[in-house]
Amino acid sequence: HNRDLDTPFGSVENPFRILKEESISESQSNAEKQKNSYSSPETHYFSDPAAKSSIKSFHKTSSKYVDTIPDEDFWRKTLQIDFERKVKSDLWFHRFVMDQNVEHSEETFSKLVSSRYEERNFPELMHVHRKTSKYAEELQSRMNVTRETQWGMERDLMQKWIGYLCEIGFYNEEELSREEMVLNPFQSDVQHWLFEEMNRYKDIWFSQRIEQNEQQLMETYTLHLVNHLLKTKRYEWYNNEKRKHTSRLQTGSQYEVKDLGYVPTRILVLVPFRHQCFQIVTLISYLLPKILNVRKEEAFELTFGDMDVVSAFKSHEYKKRFPGNLDDNFVLGVTLNHGQLSLMTPPETSDITIATPLGLYSEFSEDQLRTQLSSVELCIVDRLNTIQMQNWEFLCNIFDNLNQSQETISEKLQVSRVKDYFLHDRSAQFRQTIFISEDISLDAKALFDGPSLNNTMGKLKVHPYQDGVVEDEQVPLIFDKFKCKSITRVDDARFKFFTENVMPRFFNEEFAQVLVIVPSFFDMVRLKKYMEDNRESFLCISDDVEKPAKILEKASKDNVTYVLITERQWYFHEAKSSLFAMNYYIFYALPEHPQMFKKFLRRADVMYKKNEKCQVLTLFCKYDVHNLEKIVGEEDGRRFVKSKEQSFEL
User: What range(s) does the UTP25 NTP hydrolase-like domain occupy (predicted)?
Assistant: First the structure.
């Protein structure tokens, strides 16, 4: 007990050490000295089971110690000193501890969330849209951020993070000291800036994940995740020990503080495959300080380690998109106890839940899911584009069930310890949501700007500049714009334009061989029914077709006019582009992934050199501006939408 206590606020003077010194000074007995000379191992008080058991036995054997248990004034003074030193600069404490007793009325929250938008460019090649709330500004004014606490990171976590940077070769301990590394503990300016924004607990959408920065992005949000977990758990452990000491005073008063949610799960991480989960958990187990052992580590490695082998004939982009274990149906619980990290624990009792959207719906019923997600304070969604191609509806339903009020409460739950914003059904405003994606998506934009994300700290959107994917191809590239008065009628307007204006162009043409790329299976079904009713010759390559070579071979042999293929089929299987030897390439709608457009554009350019009638046709309307900018660039995309012309050629 010679060490000071590690708390979310920093180091607190250890009362056990003070009392032990007083006891020894009053009694010169060697036996008394020997009894009170216990020294705990080199772990902090809360994560050392041996120290806890020693304290219990010490209380039983030393009446002198029992008589001098710290009273309420002692703890208040100790915490007051700590407030003056650290708490004023710790945003986590202001947000999740001090501000939970605010009057949670509709009027109050409408004032807190009212905000203004700012737009600036930082760093290069990015658009940054910042939504700053009055609540965030008022909270920042209360804080006293010093150089020592500007990262908002636990001190022992900082040392583990520096060790990780040394291990991956970013820092060399022979050239720099640890003190010098702490001055700039990040691999790049973007990582530094992004971690600071995450630590301000804003909702963040970073849509510029590329091959060069995907590892740093995973490390950044995992570091933030571990930092939040440590502060939350240490605050709970600190309060638990405080309650025990207060109850021993037998004064009739109880130590009451609100530090719990409805369920233990405070952090939710959604990923598309087990491979990403394996990477995250491996880094978590490394970064957590003072961990004595990791339970079920071998079972976790066997279950989540790399198993699937990607074909050597796939492109480099495909291999980066689908590395390692590609199972998309799992739920993993991670629990932090005193000095022990437990993996593969039941999600209902876990501190962290890492899962796929499909896994959550397979594991829980609707009511169980609402309970499981009722107390989430930090939600991270990585590889949002891949999750969108899997099943977007699952993700939307998960956000509809996040932080919902509970009609029934477990009998084991101490309601007096539940934070006020959970009881007042305001926990959604205290939840931070982080999206990581490759580019902008209309569905993701609707979700991020929608009512499901209403964080009182504001929002931050980081989008890349769109230069487009069209280069110096010679094949005619035509963009036809159709009129649409409402975004709810886009599908009907597109279908009408395609059947009335596009398909008649191939009625009298022999060997047309048209490849139609549709965004979803529902569009394919609709076009398939129309072609069947009008006796058109066509073949379909649906989502579940892994090898379309036979279908394409039959289409060429039988002179089929139309071949329909979905964007999802290409995304998950990506057949060789050489198989698609067509005369016309029609994008029924602008694809979500510009890489797909680029692949077929290059294939069309090859076919154009063999057949000059080959061309690429793309349909769009004014509501497709985001996807259009990804294809032709921001300047041409906005020009196409604003122009009164209906057809454009590049």
Answer: 201-459
